[in-house]
Amino acid sequence: MDQTIKQELDRIAEKEQIQILYAVESGSRAWGFPSKDSDYDVRFIYTRPKKSYLQLQPTKDVLEYPISGDLDISGWDLDKTLKLLRKNNPALLEWLASPIIYKKNTSFYRELCLLSDKIQQPKGLIYHYLHMAKGNFRDYLKQEQVKSKKYFYVLRPLLACMWIEYYHEKPPVPFEQLLTIPSLSTDFLDAVAQLLIRKKAGEELALEEQIPEIQAFIKEKITYFESYVLTLETLPSISYDELNDFFFKWIE
């Protein structure tokens, strides 16, 4: 599949007349808990010819394609990417930390990571992950039987909040790395380990009974981070001048 994805990226670059500077896997495969029938969620960053940034008519800054087979692929233009980077966009930060990379301009990637390291907004990140956890918990985990994969869509953002609080840095992408946070109990880790085994072996829509240890953890952490995030300050962001310098360099 890796070769198929790279060929599809090359086809898109030629068809759209763009340069793809960075392409990665996002979603459950990057997180480390895909089901047998999980899609490949490919995301990329691209630039257009320089003159297209100067034309008067608007040009879309997102490329999205219908899901084909197991392949879900989309990309962001560099101008959109940098605007979102300034806001410390969590999805973009996860792309930059993805363990599965399909295409990479090494200099571009290194310089973009250096820019991202200058932007530290723990308050915004925790708000994002907390909102994600609360929404998935409310919508999917309050019935007697729940979709097993939805636990991970609540646990992962809550563990990300814990990582940010404990280490004062952006959380890693792989789920099992988040489980190394020292304060996690043995009972909780055992329950998650068993859930991971079932998730990886099961179908995407597998149902099972609620898991008491995990339900209790979720409720406790949501309540805690609803209060904790209010104590954090919003920090200054990176300047537009620095972002513009980066942008001008990479559209040449």
UniProtKB/TrEMBL annotation:
<dbReference type="InterPro" id="IPR018775">
    <property type="entry name" value="RlaP"/>
</dbReference>
<dbReference type="Pfam" id="PF10127">
    <property type="entry name" value="RlaP"/>
</dbReference>
<dbReference type="InterPro" id="IPR043519">
    <property type="entry name" value="NT_sf"/>
</dbReference>
<protein>
    <recommendedName>
        <fullName>Nucleotidyltransferase</fullName>
    </recommendedName>
</protein>
